[in-house]
Amino acid sequence: MSHKNHYLPRPMKPVEDESFDAFLQAMEKVLQEGNYGVPLSIFADLCTGCLRCADQCQVFQASGEARDVPHSRTEEVIRIYREFFHPRANGWFSRRKQQQDIREQFNLRDLNENLYRCTLCRRCTEECPMGIDHRLVARFGRQVLSEMGIVPQNMGGSTHEQIFGIGNTSAFPRPAIIDALEFLEEDTYDTYGLKCTFPQDKEGAEYLIFHPVSDYMMEAETLMGIGIVMDLIGHDWSVSTYYADAINYGLFFDDGALMMVLDKMVQETKRLKAKKVVIGECGHATRSALGYWKSHFESEGIEIMSILQVTAEALRQGKLSPKREKNPQKIVLHDPCNIVRGCGIITPQREILEACSMDYVEMKPNGVKNYCGGGGGSIVICEDLEPFRNQVAGKVKADQIKVSGAEMVCAPCANCKKMLRELVDHHKLPVTVIGLHDLLAKSLMVEAPQDTAPTAA
Amino acid sequence: MEQMLNFAQGPLFRLAFAVLVVGLLRRAILMAWPAYVAWRRARDQSIRWSNYFKDLESWLFPLTHAMTSRLVFTAVSYFFHVGLILVPIFLADHVSLWTVSISLTLPALPKSVADILTILTMAGVTFLLVSRFVHPMMRKLSKWEDYTVLILILFAFISGYVAGRSWNPISYNAMLLLHVVSAEILMMAVPFTKLSHCILFPFARLCSEIGSKLASDINYTYVSPITRGKRP
User: Fold this and answer.
1) Around Cβ A394, how many Cβ atoms within 10 Å?
2) Segment A376-418, tens digit of pLDDT
């Protein structure tokens, strides 16, 4: 197989055993532990090659390479399943010739590259007449690779730090988080003229918020916005400084990591005796928490929600009174895949944007039919994939932004914001990227910060 | 000829029908049982039924999907399916075959409607076959099974259509025999080829939802590549 460009997510460590048998062994283990065999056995017989999935994939649209058709991307994995693990693959119906072919053609490097060329956005699944979930298959393939110890460097490092190290993906020590929260308090007053507190480790608070921890460094405005909103609503809320991270890369590559991170969140919530857990502005964190919350044995009695739902609910109840004139620019909304398709949260972000901006437009297409920004499924995390995400995976999104003619792109997701900023730089688009609560905070701003400024709450 | 035709329409037809029904039942059980077991062992047993039915409905009447992309292709494949399902079951001649061989009484389609559906289906198959051949990416991804199945369908429909016409180049019985045999091969192929999607299609979405659920009897842990020692 020869391709023009290789964008390989470098594994953390040199792979010890690249043989096909090692791959089969890992696949067998994953199949035994999970329920992946059920859909795979059906997918193996379903695809008719109609290529609707190709029309939906922004990676294929940009690259035009056969390997980027979702069908052929997942076919490699499905084929191995079909010939080695399908109920009819053994005994009477086993096909030695096909098995031998697969064994000879197997190339771990290519497989790893192809699986990490998928943004796991699920857009193709929505449009597959047969209901083949290419995202699930790609995710299964990554799980098998992870079982073999093949994890992209950045993701593996962050996840290790989060689960076994300091306790968050960015390796912020606790004092740094405390510092950041204090700084946020001061800065909220300086910037927005609103006095609001960022309660730390408050036991018994009703709401416990987990932000994607990178926001503490890169998206201070979003955190301020969320703080202001929570204060104005009058909720009893808190942030943990011991375990503060909502990021859960396990969603992209490993069920074990997914559950261990979720476990950390549940244990921290129980320690602080919170009743409701709120996930900050982050797509994959929202999906991993909302989607798998019930899968944790100890999560019963703790409600889980996204900050978008909390804010939209407050707006509906009239607890917030944003001034739309504060955001007169033309703003286009970007839908994070994990929020719209993954969690079905579609209207809250629109209600919020409608309430706090004068001129907001939709992308075409939008909602559940949106395009991924190009950084989904861990692609934005892997340094090695930077040229790939900017030149290939994000091209469709860049065109969408260009066509919208907006001055600002609003994305309620940390990874999307990072991706879109890179994209805007790379394609030299005349837009700025901003978070949803940043905009809301601006519209809630008090004119000039004075010592007598009204206190929130 | 007469004898062969009688055999094809009698015992062979019953055999083909039995293979079809038993084969599809086997597929259904092979699909449903593991799915049920997986669901029983899932940590989170909730299933989003409303989403599921909405999705299914949107594909039974795929107007919105057709508008999203590939309007012509979607429309052609849709009407091709309509003909492919209705004609073999409800054509007047077939209805009498059902009655004679497995004593099943069904209403028959008017001849003109059946003719139109047949022509639509033949045109549809031809279109799908040609597009599979012409479209560079589709050709790359197609396997021999994809072509064979379509050719078999086309042959069964053409032979059936031509048999009863005055311009039939060979004798009625010979053409009918070709039609019956090819249709029976097709019936027997259904459970073993991609045609089995006729029964798997509605359940794929359900199975992917169940498949993404975590198992309750497994203690999920992550072995970091950094600390990974020698694997046992």
Assistant:
1) 30
2) 999 999 888 999 999 999 999 999 999 999 999 999 999 999 9
B156: confidence class by pLDDT, cuts 50, 70, 90: very high
What ipTM does the predicted assembly reach?
A: 0.90
The alpha carbon of residue B36 and the mean position of all alpha carbons in its chain are separated, in whole angstroms, by 24
Give the pLDDT band of residue A94 (cuts 50, 70, 90): low
- Residues of chain A positioned with their CB less than 8 A from the CB of B198: none
Asked whether residue A83 is domain-assigned, the answer is yes
Chain A, window 329-358: residues with a beta carbon less than 8 angstroms from a chain B beta carbon = 344
**Domains plus CATH for chain B?**
2-21+55-208 (1.20.950.20)
How many domains would you assign to chain A? Answer: 3
Chain A interface includes B220 (CB < 8 A)? yes
> Does one domain contain both A279 and A208?
yes
Cα separation, A84 vs A102, whole angstroms? 10
Q: Torsions phi, psi of A76, nearest 5?
A: -55, -45
pTM of structure: 0.92
Query: Which chain B residue's Cα is nearest to A365?
Result: B68
Give the whole-angstrom CA distance, residue A268 versus residue A261: 11
Binding-face residues of B in 88-147 toward A, CB within 8 A: 132, 135, 137-138, 140-143, 146
Q: Give the residues across from A360 on adjacent strands.
A: A331
Q: Is B62 on the interface with A (CB under 8 A)?
A: yes
Residue range B11-34, pLDDT digits in tens: 899 999 999 999 999 999 988 999
Tell me if B226 and A72 make a contact (CB, 8 A cut-off).
no
Whether residues A125 and A163 share a domain: the answer is no
Domain that holds residue A334: 324-443
